[in-house]
Amino acid sequence: MCTTSSTLERYKAELKKCADAHSSERITNKNEEYAAAFYAELFRNTDSTVKIFCEGAHSCIWRNPEFQEGFENLLKTPSITVLILTEENVENVELFPEYLQTIIKRKPENLQFRHLNQEAREIISSRFEEDVNFAVFDNDKFRFEFDKTHYTAYGSFNDPEIVEEIQRYFDTAFEKADVTDFKFSDSPTLDQYIMVKEPNNATTYYSMEKESVH
Predict the structure, then answer these.
(1) Which residue from 3, 59, 13 is spatially nearest to 38, judged by alpha carbons?
(2) Cβ-Cβ contacts under 8 Å for 197 (sequence gap 6 or more)
(3) 103-157 residue pLDDT tens
C-alpha cells in the first residue's frame, strides 16, 4: 500500500505530539509504513523495557529503515531490556534482516529471544485470538496489531491498565517459553547480493533473483 510522504509526515508529527504529551489518546496505524513509524516513536520514548510478541521478527516492519534505527538505538542503552517472544522457532538467523543478524551475533546482554512451546502457546491463546501481534513499552505504552496481514493496529502512549493486562500474559508465557538457540552459518543473507571472487580477483555480483534460495 502506497502512502504519500506528506500524509506520513503528518502522522509522525501527531505521534510525536501524543508522545510528548504522554497522551492517553488511542492511536491507530493502517499499513506497514505507519506501523514502523508508530514503533519508532514508541522506541524513542522507552526508558526501561520493551516486550514484543510477534510471528518471527522478519516481517516487512522489521526490515523498515525507521524501525531498524529505533531498534538499534534501543540496544545501545544498556539500561533498556528488550524481550522478544516469537510464535515460530526462529533459530535460523538467516531469516532475519541483516542488521538483526549482526545484533544477535553480538549477543547483547539486554536482548533476549524466546519462542512458544505448547505451554506458552496455551497461555497466549487463553487470552488472545490467533493472528495478533503486540508490544508493550515500560509500564504505560503499547501497540496491539489485530490484522497481521495489513499490519493494522491500535495503541497508546499512556494506558497503564491495558499494558498491565497484556504484560501479565506476556510475562507468564515468556517465563515458560523456550530460549531460542540461534544457528549461524557463513551463507549469504537474504538481504545481500551474492559476491563471488573470480580467479582473476575480479568480483562478480549475482542478484538473489538469479540464485535459488534454500
Answers:
(1) 13
(2) 203
(3) 999 999 999 999 999 999 999 999 998 889 999 999 999 999 999 999 999 999 9
Q: Which residues contact 199 (CB under 8 A, 6 or more apart)?
A: none
pTM of the model: 0.84
Q: Locate all alpha helices (DSSP H) within the chain, ordered by sequence.
A: 5-20, 32-44, 65-75, 98-106, 118-125, 160-176
- Let me know: does 130 contact 48? Beta carbons within 8 Å: no
Residue 208 domain flag: no
Q: What's the Cα-to-Cα distance from 10 to each of 17, 45, 155, rounded to whole Å?
A: 11, 19, 18
Kindly state whether residue 138 falls inside one of the protein's structural domains: yes
Domain membership flag for residue 200 = no
CATH number at residue 167: 3.30.870.10
C-alpha cell at 185: 552459518
Question: Does any domain span residue 190?
Answer: no
Domain range enclosing 33: 5-185
Non-local CB neighbours of 97 within 8 Å, separated by 6+ positions: 58, 62, 63, 68, 191
Q: Copy the grid coordinates of residue 82.
A: 528488550
The pLDDT of 9-26, averaged and rounded, is 97
Taking the C-alpha atoms of residue 144 and residue 167, their distance in angstroms, rounded to an integer, is: 12
DSSP labels for 114-147? Answer: EE--HHHHHHHHTTS-SS-EEEEETTTEEEEEEE
